[in-house]
Amino acid sequence: MNDASAQCCIPLVFCFDRNYLPFASVATVSACQNTKHPLRIYWIFPENLVDEASESRRRISHVATDIRFIPNDMSQLADWNIRGHINTAAYFRILIPDLVPEKKVIYLDCDILVLQDLNELFKIPTGPSGISGVAHPEGTSLTRIPLSKNDSYINSGVLLLDIEYLRKDSFVTRTKEIYFKYHQYATWVDQCIINKSCELRKGILDPKWNFLVLPQSENTNQLSLLIRKQEIAIVHFAGSIKPWHAWCHPSIREFWWAYAQNSGLDRSHLQPIETFKQARSLLLALQKTGPLREILTTHLRTFVRFPRSYLTQLPRFAKQLLTG
Fold first, then answer.
1. If DSSP states are collapsed to H, E and C, what string results for the chain?
2. In the structure, what pLDDT confidence band is assigned to residue 304 with cuts at 50, 70 and 90?
3. How many CB atoms lie within 10 A of CB 239?
4. 186 neighbors 144 (Cβ within 8 angstroms)
5. CB atoms within 10 A of CB 302
6. Mean pLDDT computed over every residue of the chain
7. pTM recorded for the entire structure
8. How far apart are the first and last CA of the chain?
9. Could you report the per-residue pLDDT of 203-226, keeping only the tens digit for each?
């Protein structure tokens, strides 16, 4: 597809609902701080969110100087499938060619941090379909939507989009048709139908542009090394556990919060541990970092939202958990 990198600003798109608005601000700030070229940022969100989005934009205006709103009517997606941490706003990315007045854009999920200049990514030509992304190694085997065995399944958290071509190619109409035909077979609904829509025609990006991190299973020392060596350009906190969850691995959580503080977020946005399942998740992530007493002493403050009865049971529970 045509290379639109000659334009002076890099168009960047985020899609979110009320729940993800604070985290869209963090991702936006990380992109602005680490990209030398000017960014023209589009926020696509439900139309009842304008006032809250305006306040978030004001808080980060010292870093992000050009954020444009595209409030969207949710009714056209009201009956679309919602599953796990995938919400209706996740489908907004499918509508980008119809909503964003640009020729070429970068789309980013809100649970990412940009660590390197996005101009390098923007200069890359898109694939034959007008869409490029990073290959997801397990995607083809996990989706039940029929795909060619020669197709490369991409993660939709970072997409390079030639939306001028996608308009001509009727991408939005075709993808909606695919949704209604296959949505019951999709593992990650929005991602799976995008992959089906562009089957055998996707461009494949260097993995550094969408480095997937599962916070509870990640080797944090290895991650830090890769970041220092500048081998990761965009880190993507995949899965249901996010850095704004108190049960996220502390090393991952604090790395993300360094950017969150620059976006005006305070610790009130940290979602506290409220169930034993969440506590178990944190303790499993920490079990190799030190003795039980040290773990509980260091991280006990993350359990403060537990009912008192939970707190009295926690040391016994943790000991049983960590001793197998």
1. CCCCCCCCCEEEEEECCHHHHHHHHHHHHHHHHHCCCCEEEEEEEEHHHHHHHHHHHHHCCCCCCCEEEEEECHHHHCCCCCECCECHHHHHHHHHHHHCCCCCEEEECCCEEECCCCHHHHCCCCCCCCEEEEECCCHHHHCCCCCCCCCCCEEEEEEEECHHHHHHCCHHHHHHHHHHHHHHHCCCHHHHHHHHHCCCCCEECCHHHHEEECCCCCCHHHHHHHHHCCCCCEEEECCCCCCCECCCCHHHHHHHHHHHHHCCCCHHHCECCCCHHHHHHHHHHHCCCCCHHHHHHHHHHHHCCCCHHHHHHHHHHHHHHHCC
2. very low
3. 15
4. yes
5. 20
6. 84
7. 0.88
8. 54
9. 999 999 999 988 777 666 667 777
How far apart CA 238 and CA 215 sit, in angstroms, is: 8
What are 232's two structure tokens?
Answer: 């990761």
C-alpha distances in angstroms, 42 versus 36, 101, 121, 122, 283?
18, 10, 17, 16, 39
